[in-house]
Amino acid sequence: MAGNPRHIIRDPKIDSKYLSYINNLSSGNNTTNVTSSHETIKQYVKSKNGIFSGAFGSIGSSLAISSGRLDLTANTTGAIPIRRMVYVLPESGTSDTLDNIELTGLELPYQELTLISSTNNTITITHNGSAGGTSKNIYCPGDTDYVLAPNEAIKLIYDPINTLWLVTGNASSSGGVTNPVNASLDLGGNSIQKVTTLFLNGDIDNANFIAGNTGGLDYNVDDTDETHDFAVDNVAKLRIGNTAINAYVALDITGNLTTSGELILTGSALPTSTNTSITSYTGDMNYNALTNDSHFFRINGTVEVEIDADGVDIRNGWLELEERNEPSAPTTNHLRIYAQELSGKTRLMVRFPTGFSQQIAIEP
Known about the structure:
There is one protein chain. About 5% of the residues lie in helices and about 30% in strands. By secondary structure, the protein is mainly beta. Among the domains are: about 10-55, no CATH class; about 60-70 and about 80-170, Sandwich (Jelly Rolls). The strands form six sheets. Strands 3-5-8-12-13-10-7-4 form an eight-stranded mixed sheet, with no helix packed on it. It is rod-shaped, with a radius of gyration of 43 Å.
């Protein structure tokens, strides 16, 4: 073919109605006027083989709640844009409650909507509120209301089957991701690892607690020189280590204290007058002192009975026996001394392994 080659324009002609629609959509929110330039229009939508390429932006609208309803079809600019990003404003003041969303029944299947609360406003999103007419309710995770704090955004998707808006998540201005208040955190069997500090914040009426499942609740530290510290007001009160459990305050036990090993009492302080007794469980109860050490039983700080390798020492007191019936015979190499009543008088008796009891002395 003779002559110079010609440039072939492959881009289709831009429909003037499309340009008009984009400019109306931008009215009042974007000063850019889109022309018929193919390069300019490509700044808005790029695609290849039906796949979008590049960043997406949306035109934001500021809408105020009216009687608990957010009307996405509100006409304030002469044109009703398809709103996807909405700054939610209170009807008055700096806080309000959002019960439902109105779109005049024109909701698109699985339409996405992002609601944003501005710097000074707090919006409470009602779970399953009181929708009427063509407005639709909002469903929040955990079936509980969600508080959209200042500078937070929350994403919703329209469910055409159940005809309601579903809250799918939210993000604060700092980039953190949180769950709605009072909702359960289900990790599906996965673990939370490498948490520097885990705060459990209760209130005056509800104590903090961690409940275990039927399989038990395990706490573990990696190194043998590490400890579990339980603190109150940042002061350790109970410490569980590799070799010992240390209590830094009085240990008050309302149930039984059971140990399969040794119970070692190393404190030097004297018992108080309000101390209770130690009773034995089924089986023997053994007390052991090291060589040259003694068991001391004190009253008001004064030793009354001492048990050591030499036997039993009674100090500043006496051995008092109460009258009783004759006991059975003791085992070999033992004897039993007891008090017994005879004709209104008390007598001191002894019984050996063989034979009957014998009188040692009788009351004058």
